[in-house]
Amino acid sequence: QSVLTQSPSASGTPGQRVTISCSGSSSNIGTNTVNWYLHLPGTAPKLLIYGNYQRPSGVPDRFSGSKSGTSASLAISGLQSEDEADYYCATWDDSLNGWVFGGGTDVTVL
Amino acid sequence: QVQLQQSGPGLVKPSQTLSLTCAISGDSVSSNSAAWTWIRQSPSRGLEWLGRTYWKSRWYNDYAVSVKSRITINPDTSKNQFSLQLSSVTPEDTAVYYCAREKGFGVLRLDYWGQGTLVTVSS
Lengths: 110, 123
Known about the structure:
Radius of gyration of chain B: 14 Å
Oligomer: heterodimer
Strand content of chain A: over 45%
Number of helices of chain A: 0
Structural class of chain A: mainly beta
Number of helices of chain B: 0
Shape of chain B: globular
Low-confidence stretches of chain B: none
Mean pLDDT of chain A: 96
Helix content of chain B: under 10%
Number of strands of chain B: 11
Shape of chain A: globular
Largest sheet of chain A: 6 strands, mixed
C-alpha cells in the first residue's frame, strides 16, 4: 500500500555491505530528492540521508545514498550490529502534493 | 538543536476528535523556512503523511486527500507549537502519530521528529 516500494528485508554479516532499494515514479523520485531514515521501535525516525546522498552532521560515512531515474538506493558498508533497524525512504510527490514513504526494509545483522 | 515534544491523550473513543500538540524548541513555528507536519504509522498503512502548516507572509495548510475532510492543523504562535485535530475517528485511525519539521527548498527533508504518540481508537 506504500507509494514507494522497498524490499521488506535485507541481511548481512558484520563488516559486509548491504544495499536497500526504493522504487517510485516520475511524480516522486523522478522529480524530487530522496531521504532515508533509520527507525527503531519506540523511537523517533532518524534522518540518515537527504538530497539523495547528503549526510546530516553526525551520520557515519558508512551510510551512502544514490538515485537514478525513479529509483534510489541506500548502502550500508562495514555493517555493524547497531545497524539492525528498519530503514525507510521518503520523498515529496508532486501529484499527491504530499510526502510519500516506502514500506520499510528490516535490516538484520547475522 | 531543534526538539519537538508531543502531548495528548493515548485513547480516543470512536466518532470523537483526536487532538495532539507538538511543542517546538530551537526553532519558531513562524519560521519562513520550515513547515510543521504530522505523520502517522500503523501496521496496515505504514508511514502516512497527514498534513502541514507553514508561514509565508500568511499561514498555509496542506492536507493529505485521505483525511482532508477531517483534519485541522493549527499553529499557536503564543506557545510556539502546533496542533493536530482529526475528527470522527474510527479504529482505522489507531496509529503512532509523529510531528516533524520539514526543511529546505528543492532539497526537502523531514529532519527533526517528535517522540511519537500511540493513539488507540476504542470504546
